[in-house]
Structure formats: C-alpha cells, structure tokens
Amino acid sequence: KDVQKEREPHVYLSKEEVKEKIQSYNSSVTDKLKMTLNANGIYTGFIKVQMELCRPITVQSSQSQGRCAHSNNETAFYLPDGCVNTLHISSTNTVREVIEALLKKFFVADNPAKFALYKRCHKEDQVYTCKLSDREHPLYLRLVAGPRTEMLSFVLREHETGEVMWEAFSIPELQNFLRILDKEENEQLQILKKRYAAYRDKLEEALGGVWKPG
C-alpha cells in the first residue's frame, strides 16, 4: 500500500554538477534512453509515466478503444490498467506541462486540471508516493534519482475525490460516465444473481439428499 511522503526540498545544482550527474546517469542507462546536455545548460531526456486512472477519460471517438460510451464525436472509456507512456522532455518542463503532453499524446479531451502527477519511491521495503506540485520539474527528479524505476517512478492519477473539480467536466462527459456506471452496475447485478442462483441450487440439492427416504 502506498504511503504519503512529505515533499523533499529542491536542491539546486551547478552546471558542473549537472554535467557530472548526466554522465553518471548515462553510464547506468540500460534502455538507451539517455539524457543530453545542451550548450545553454538545458538538458533533455526521457521519463516513463504509468497511467493509474480509475475514472473514464474522454477522447476523440476515432482514437478510442475498448469499453466505451459515445457522445457526438467524443468517447468516454477506461484506460487499460498498467499502461505506461514514455515522454521526451527537457529540464525546463514542469509537471503541468508533462500532464498536458501526456493527455495530448493519448488524444484526451479532458481538462488537465482533473489530473495530478505523483512520484513513487521504494525505500526500506516500503512504497512512498508524493503528489508533485505543478511547478516541479520531473526530468530533474529523474536525473537526481538515476535511471532505475524502482528508485523513482512517475504515476498519473486523477485528483482525490474530494479534490475533483467537477465544474471542469462537461455535460456530455458526465452523461457518458453515468452510462458506463449504469452498465457496470447491471453487469455486477447479473453476476450476483448468477452466484446466488448457483448457491440456491446447491442448497436445494443438498436438502433433497438429506430428506430423501432411505
């Protein structure tokens, strides 16, 4: 289970320290996703973001796949669990810009304000998560932590229920969500009915065996 962890203070690195860390980072990379330092001091590289979305997202219907509900030219559907996306970004890109880039890459029409980017760290057999502020720089965090995802990984989630900006949802989106929820509720109801019907059959069979004349 994830445990909330206090946000760590940002440590500013000199140009020489950045250069040394990039060299160390690239020497440890195993997937060829190396970082590049430019003459102006800005560096570029890759981050991987795992999508952990519980609610359906709204995309252009021509790009949608899987279980969905349609409304005009948009579709609401659930993104498959464990979906991971790789982004090429720079050290100047903020968390908010990374979220916007992810949504654009998936053709998501939802308001970026509905989502938050988290960092996940493993330490002493415990998993810590921390929601990043919009102004933090994910590539800097990746550089400092090194390339190993077990040391640091990024996760995109919706804001917690109490933090959701419901006014950011459009009427068609909310209607699509209700259609999907109604469909899921009916599916779960049918599963429960079949389960209890099977139990009832077994009980009646057992009772028939007990009261059967010898």
TrEMBL record:
Cellular component GO terms held in the UniProt record: cytoplasm; microtubule
Keyword Phosphoprotein assigned: yes
One protein family per Pfam: Nore1-SARAH
Example GO biological process: signal transduction
Gene Ontology molecular function: zinc ion binding
Span of the signal peptide: none
UniProt keyword annotations, A-Z: Cytoplasm, Cytoskeleton, Metal-binding, Microtubule, Phosphoprotein, Zinc, Zinc-finger
The UniProt record lists the keyword Ribonucleoprotein: no
Subcellular location per the Swiss-Prot or TrEMBL entry: Cytoplasm, Cytoskeleton
InterPro entries in the cross-refs: RA_dom (IPR000159), RASSF1-6 (IPR033614), SARAH_dom (IPR011524), Ubiquitin-like_domsf (IPR029071)
Residue span(s) of domain SARAH: 163-210
Domain Ras-associating: 71-161
Chief site of localization: cytoplasm
UniProt-recorded name of the protein: RASF3 protein
Native source species: Chionis minor (Black-faced sheathbill)
Taxonomic lineage of the native organism: Eukaryota, Metazoa, Chordata, Craniata, Vertebrata
Gene transcribed to yield this protein: Rassf3
